[in-house]
Design a protein that fits this description.
Structural class: alpha+beta
CATH class of the largest domain: Alpha Beta
CATH superfamily of the largest domain: HUPs
Distance between the termini: 61 Å
Radius of gyration: 31 Å
CATH architecture of the largest domain: 3-Layer(aba) Sandwich
Oligomer: single chain
CATH topology of the largest domain: Rossmann fold
Largest sheet: 6 strands, mixed
Number of strands: 22
Number of domains: 3
Length: 441
């Protein structure tokens, strides 16, 4: 099997000659076999062990065993202890999920801190089949049915080509000692239910079920590659950036795709919209403008022939104050502020992103706030007052544009609709002596 491992590493270009590996070792048969294979293959590695404190003294004995294993192979040893049950309860997730998150987070921290090139884990072919069945039971997109990758970021699985039976035969032939986890026989955990209950039933129907599943996973991986190439081509046609940097989707281009729901689900996945929301959105593509849909992090707004995507930020009730000595602001918008004395040679910048104000008309601190119902101002160049809501209508502001608009005010009087229009009452005139320049960066 050592020769097969070396060939697998070479054919998949897994490690460079001088790469160093951090190997996750539980003490069970899979990780012990992995350590022995890597050792005899001549690879440079260290051993890392997590004590999840889930089995009392047995967990502590696992830790002692792995430490002695590292000493036997003369390898550097790292370990960490976790209160896994408490973490699971705090996060509202299963113990299995908590252990997985804790393990890989710590592995990555250790890898970076000690300059290892790769994290190596002992998943094999049977783990691949079990993961497929778990994802199938939970419900998943095509990505969840393509199995574990040999290389995923900095995580490498160099014995995915080996079956559990082959692992057991190797351990027996090499007289390897390992720890038996008593919980592996229990069906309280989801993976164990798959292993001990579901897979034996499937093998009653097809004795070659595991081999068939590996082949199916391979086909699905190829299919997913074609699928995601199509998604990326669609993304180039449908998704574009607005002037504010937010993404928007062209409804016209989207409706040319078939099936729309599948494309839209993948296009909105980076913004964490689930399939139910996508389904509801598809139903109203020809519907009323202004309809809103939410994910945990973003909002999608149907605006005429486009879907606007905005990250959820709640500054609606907040006010930001600009003191007289303030020369910059980073949030909620980036502003730079300066003051100059009016000179005969001064030339007014007419960009909507720059406000040149008569400083002597201002009372500090100035206020930066969101617009409110009933706000009005005197647009630059006009004699009369105008409701801000009417200004938005005239300028054809979308719902998202209106909600993203900030006002710079002098008390409650609007000085500048930031990035859009100056108030006539605060413009620079021939009588202005001091000019406050506010620039939207």
């Amino acid at each position: 099997m050592i020769e097969r491992l070396i060939k697998f590493i070479e054919s998949n270009h897994l490690f460079a000659p001088n790469d160093t590996l951090l190997v996750g070792v539980s003490g069970g048969i899979d990780s012990v076999v992995l350590v022995d294979l890597l050792y005899h293959a001549g690879l440079a590695f260290a051993i890392a062990h997590c004590n999840f404190n889930l089995r009392g003294k047995e967990s502590d004995q696992d830790e002692i065993f792995v430490k002695s294993l590292a000493a036997f192979y003369d390898k550097q040893y790292f370990h960490q202890s976790f209160n896994t049950v408490e973490v699971a309860q705090d996060r509202g997730i299963s113990v299995e999920m908590a252990a997985r998150d804790l393990r890989y987070t710590w592995f990555e921290e250790t890898r970076k801190n000690h300059h290892f090139d790769w994290i190596v884990v002992a998943h094999h072919r049977d783990d691949q089949v079990e993961s497929f069945m778990l994802n199938l039971a939970r419900g998943t997109g095509i990505s969840g049915l393509t199995g574990m990758k040999i290389v995923n970021g900095k995580i490498v699985r160099p014995i995915l080509f080996v079956s559990r039976k082959e692992v057991e035969e190797y351990a027996e032939s090499k007289h390897l000692h390992f720890r038996e986890d008593c919980t592996n026989a229990l069906t309280d955990f989801q993976r164990n239910k798959i292993r001990h209950l579901v897979l034996p039933l499937m093998e009653d129907l097809n004795p070659s079920f595991r081999d068939s599943m590996i082949e199916t996973i391979s086909h699905l991986r190829d299919t997913s590659a074609i699928y995601f190439q199509a998604i990326e081509r669609a993304r180039e046609l449908v998704v574009r950036k607005t002037t504010t940097g937010d993404p928007e989707l062209s409804v016209t281009e989207l409706k040319l795709l078939n099936p729309v729901s599948a494309y839209l689900f993948e296009l909105l996945k980076p913004y964490h919209f689930n399939s139910d929301v996508v389904h509801d959105l598809v139903q109203v593509l020809d519907g009323q403008s202004g309809k809103q849909f939410f994910s945990a992090t973003h909002r999608a707004v149907l605006d005429r022939d486009r879907i606007l995507i905005q990250k959820l930020l709640d500054f609606s009730d907040q006010r930001f104050y600009l003191e007289e000595e303030c020369n910059s602001l980073e949030i909620p918008v980036k502003l730079s502020i300066s003051m100059v004395i009016r000179e005969p040679s001064f030339k007014m910048n007419t960009s909507s992103h720059i406000a040149c104000l008569d400083k002597d008309r201002l009372q500090f601190p100035l206020i930066l706030r969101k617009w409110q119902k009933g706000d009005y101002f005197q647009p630059l160049g006009m004699d009369g007052m105008k409701k801000l809501s009417d200004f938005f209508v005239d300028e054809k502001f979308s719902l998202l544009q209106k909600e993203k608009t900030w006002l710079l005010t002098n008390g409650e009087e609007i000085i500048w609709i930031v990035g859009e229009r100056l108030d006539n009452r605060y413009k620079v005139t021939s009588e202005t002596k001091n000019i406050l320049i506010v620039k939207l960066d």
